[in-house]
Amino acid sequence: MIELEGVPELIDPVMVAAFEGWNDAGDAASTAVAHLEREWKGEVFAALDAEDYYDFQVNRPTVFMDAGVRKITWPTTRLSVVRVGGDKPRDLVLVRGIEPSMRWRSFCNELLGFAHELGVELVVILGALLGDTPHTRPVPISGTTSDPDLARRMDLEETKYEGPTGIVGVLQEACTHAGVPAVSLWAAVPHYVSQPPNPKATLALLNRLEDLIDVRIPLGELPEDARAWQVGVDQLAAEDSEVAEYVQTLEEARDTADLPEASGEAIAREFERYLRRRDGGGSPGGHATDGDGSPYRRDSSGERTRPPKPPKPGADDGDSAED
């Protein structure tokens, strides 16, 4: 049974989820949700029972010292709520965890139970995959959904993917079957520099999420981190002529493919984002607290419930996720 004591009525809630593992190339997606939690000071209100979904030989618990006492942190999935302030405040239910080892259908049903109880109006699942994309160009972000009406209304792609899937794909389909609008945002991470972190991909996901749910997301140091990441990869790639030549090939292919995108809606989207940030539209402030006006309540007891050198082209790229 799901108990949500201490969580109030939410305003236009959107659930934003990301999971470490197969669907999280460069840790770009999970880092994006962690960024939202940090910037808006989200507080965890629920956690799934780790015993139900994780193989501890695959995802091992960690031991740490707290005031001289040894404690264990178990791998799991946690939920928090943040309130985004401004003229039109709204709440985000943040879901961050690890792709489960077992019982995926029960896992998705439990998350959907939370979504139902909280009145979630839209589920956005973030993912990142390995792709043939150059690190010197904007990170491609694809927005997909299984709902044709939602695809038309929100200018998304109706997914046609067939093949192996991860928890992102399974959760999206579970939402569709449950009648909950769901969208997946995928960042394409260069396969030749796939090691985390990848702040450039994280930043691209947050920018696309900002457009999708119409909130202004405080970016903190991410833009500077993204620039530093690209400079670092530039320097490392320049040390290997084969990698440099391969990157140039990817650039040429990308530039040719992107020519139609150099006008029209793409330019309009970038200009609208620029105006929002220049005029201070939305609000980077506002977060969950436990004082007056907070989206949190107390229960009856008073408790608050340099990136590594890229491998040579042709090296094993590892797994990638669906788009």
Binned, the helix content reads: 25-40%
Q: Nearest-angstrom radius of gyration?
A: 20 Å
In the predicted model, the low-confidence regions spanning at least 5 consecutive residues are: 281-321
Compressed to H and E, one letter per element, the order equals EHEHEEEEHEEHEHEHHHH
**Strand residue percentage:** 15-25%
- The secondary structure category is alpha/beta
Number of strands: 10
Quick one: biggest sheet?
8 strands, mixed
**Treating each run of at least 4 consecutive H or I residues as one helix, how many helices?**
9
State the separation between the terminal residues, measured CA to CA: 34 Å
| Strand adjacency order, main sheet | 2-5-6-1-7-10-8-9
**Which outline best applies?**
globular
Q: What is the residue-averaged pLDDT?
A: 83
Task: Outline the structure in words.
The chain is α/β, with parallel strands linked by helices. The protein has helices at 28-39, 50-53, 104-118, 148-153, 167-177, 199-213, 222-238, 241-257, 265-279; strands at residues 14-20, 43-47, 62-66, 69-73, 78-84, 90-98, 122-131, 141-145, 157-158, 182-190. The strands form two sheets. Strands 2-5-6-1-7-10-8-9 form an eight-stranded mixed sheet, with helices on both faces. The chain has a two-stranded antiparallel ribbon with strand order 3-4. Strand 8, helix 4 and strand 9 form a beta-alpha-beta unit. Helix 1 crosses helix 6, helix 3 (104-118) packs across helix 5 and helix 6 packs antiparallel against helix 7. The longest helix is centred in the C-terminal third of the chain and has 17 residues, at 222-238. It is globular, with a radius of gyration of 20 Å. It starts with 13 loop residues before the first strand and ends in a 44-residue tail after the last helix. Mean pLDDT is 83; it is low at 281-321.
